Amino acid sequence: MFTGIITDQGEITALTPTAQGSLHRLRIACGYDRAGIADGASIAANGICLTVVGSGLDNGKTWYEVDAGAETLAVTSAKHWRVGTRLNLERALKIGDELGGHIVTGHVDGIATVVSREELPEMARFELTTSRDLARFIAAKGSVTLDGVSLTVNTAVDTTFSVLIIPHTLEVTTLSNWQPGSAINLEIDLMARYAARLAEMK
């Protein structure tokens, strides 16, 4: 379980396709303390919950390895990741941690595509679109997770929605790199999912 509050930016330093391309072994350099990363730990990368399968140090810099499986490569932006790709990272939530964003599972539902970017004083407004199946869970003032970042939806019309990114978020995440056409990992709000299911069952 996560909160959508990014705690580090990592960089892919090695990518090895295995199992006939249906599995990618990724090595990610990060700023986390090596002693605090155990095999089997969960770390979200751009909103995708991935399991640590190894870790170490390289010239004093922490790295860890994860496997991205066929399903992850099929439904997320992980299929586009390359050596040098920078990722938003978040460690799994611990009991007693501050819930600063909203409840995030790290199970990406699909892709949202950036339609437009509007530069504002020290901020940026992005308009995105997604499939109708996912758009029905997105509402103005509701929560959404984009590339692992917990955000508040500003507007939602049909399959298009917008978010406003404040200076701090632009500084500490990869969202500053978004451009029209960028493919973004989208996780819908867990509460919205259950609310829709309850409505369907009436």
From TrEMBL:
Pfam families referenced in this protein's UniProt entry, alphabetically: Lum_binding (PF00677)
Enzyme class (EC, first level): transferase
Superkingdom to which the source organism belongs: Bacteria
A molecular function (GO) term: riboflavin synthase activity
Statement: the UniProt record of this protein carries the keyword Nuclease: no
Classification via Gene3D superfamilies: 2.40.30.20
UniProt-listed Enzyme Commission number(s): 2.5.1.9
Catalytic activity: 2 6,7-dimethyl-8-(1-D-ribityl)lumazine + H(+) = 5-amino-6-(D-ribitylamino)uracil + riboflavin
One of the GO biological process terms: riboflavin biosynthetic process
Residue stretches of each Lumazine-binding repeat: 1-102, 103-199
UniProt xrefs under InterPro entries: ATP_synth_asu-like_sf, Lumazine-bd, Lumazine-bd_dom, Riboflavin_synthase-like_b-brl
Pathway(s) per entry: Cofactor biosynthesis; riboflavin biosynthesis; riboflavin from 2-hydroxy-3-oxobutyl phosphate and 5-amino-6-(D-ribitylamino)uracil: step 2/2
Domain Lumazine-binding: 1-102, 103-199
Keywords of the record: Repeat, Riboflavin biosynthesis, Transferase
Function of the molecule: Catalyzes the dismutation of two molecules of 6,7-dimethyl-8-ribityllumazine, resulting in the formation of riboflavin and 5-amino-6-(D-ribitylamino)uracil.
Official protein name in the record: Riboflavin synthase
